[in-house]
Hints:
Chain A is built from no helices and 11 strands. With 115 residues, chain A is an all-beta fold.
Amino acid sequence: EAQVTQNPRYLITVTGKKLTVTCSQNMNHEYMSWYRQDPGLGLRQIYYSMNVEVTDKGDVPEGYKVSRKEKRNFPLILESPSPNQTSLYFCASSFLLPDRPNEQFFGPGTRLTVL
Amino acid sequence: RKEVEQDPGPFNVPEGATVAFNCTYSNSASQSFFWYRQDCRKEPKLLMSVYSSGNEDGRFTAQLNRASQYISLLIRDSKLSDSATYLCVAGTGRRALTFGSGTRLQVQP
C-alpha cells in the first residue's frame, strides 16, 4: 500500500530534550516536506527536500533540523524542543517531475507536546 | 496579510444543500491550485486540483479566477460525509505550497 508513515504518532516531552520524528514514504517520491499545523494558522512549511542530500528551509525553520540521506526517509529533528513547538506535525511527499501527478501525500501526523 | 485566506466558518448546512467556499491568494506568481480535505485530527487529502478552465468531479466543482486571484469550491447535494475542513492551496510550483487555514463545513441531517 502506497503510504507515508510517521513515528511516533504522539509524544509528550520536556523542554530541551532532543527528539526525532521519523518520516518514510514508499512511493519513490523525490520531494518530501515537513509542516506544522496550529489552530488559526493553517499548515506552515518547516523544511523541504527535493532529493537525496538536498534540503531547504520553509517558512518556519527555526528550532528544527532535517536530513535526507535516503530517498524514502526524511526525519525531523528538534535539538532542544521548547513549548512553542507544541503542535501537530505532518510529513508529506510527492513527485517532482512535471509529467507525474503532483498530489502531495501526507502522513498521519505526529502530535507533539513540549512541557 | 496571509498568502492564502479563507473564511474559517463553520458553515452549517442541511443535507442536500449546495454550499460554496471562496479563497483568495496574494502571490500573483502562483501557478498551481488545489483543494484538500481534512477530517478532524487526520491528515489532509487531495480533493481536487483546480484548473484555469474550471473542473468538476461528481458533486464538486472548482473554479479559478486569476484576474481576481480567487479560487472557489462548490459542493452540490451535500452529504453528512462531506463534513470536514476544506483547505485551499496555492503553489508557485511543486516545491512550495501555501495552505489556507481551512473552512469548516458541518452538514446536518
